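Hi all, posting the design record for the shared folder.

TITLE: backbone redesign
STEP: 1 of 1
STRUCTURE INPUT:
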């Protein structure tokens, strides 16, 4: 099932997600629906927060063939090092892209949808994507990293778009 994606500045994007404590069919269904939603958007990552489910669940697929689904339940960053700047976009901020500086390399521990735990080392686009999605779980959107001037410009742009849509 394709889920509807909240759009910035929806206040529900500010909610902090709770850890997943029960692994079962409901979680498997959520992960399945989130993956379907991400692929159909299309996007390379989606956090549960963006579909108004406030649990620590992320799906990512940065593969070109769109066959490399990564499911991160209860992700925790164990190590982060270096700095890298990358242009980011977000399914919750359609049509807007800007540069954000994040850690260049991270090591993450997460569970899959069945509860199995593992560690992942990430750099490049995957490192950016994991950090971007983990921000969502904390109620943070990538535009929060931008200067207040840029955020004011974005707000004006969104207002204009809403007027046109309305
Ligand atoms: Ni996003």
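Okay, here is what came back for every position:
SEQUENCE:
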């Amino acid at each position: 099932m394709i889920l509807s994606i909240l759009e910035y500045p929806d206040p529900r994007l500010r909610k902090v997600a709770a850890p997943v404590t029960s692994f079962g069919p409901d979680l498997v269904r959520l992960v399945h629906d989130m993956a379907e939603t991400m692929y159909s958007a299309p996007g390379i990552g989606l956090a549960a927060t963006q579909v108004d489910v406030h649990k620590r669940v992320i799906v990512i697929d940065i593969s070109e063939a769109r066959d490399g689904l990564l499911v991160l339940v209860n992700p925790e960053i164990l190590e982060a090092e270096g700095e890298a700047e990358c242009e980011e976009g977000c399914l919750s901020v359609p049509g807007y892209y800007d540069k954000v500086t994040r850690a260049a390399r991270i090591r993450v521990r997460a569970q899959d949808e069945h509860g199995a735990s593992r560690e992942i080392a990430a750099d490049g686009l995957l490192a950016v994507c994991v950090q971007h999605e983990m921000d969502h779980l904390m109620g943070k959107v990538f535009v929060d990293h931008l200067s207040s001037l840029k955020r004011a410009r974005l707000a004006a742009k969104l207002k204009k778009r809403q007027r046109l849509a309305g």
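COMMENT: The chain has a mean pLDDT of 96.
Let me know if anyone wants the other runs.
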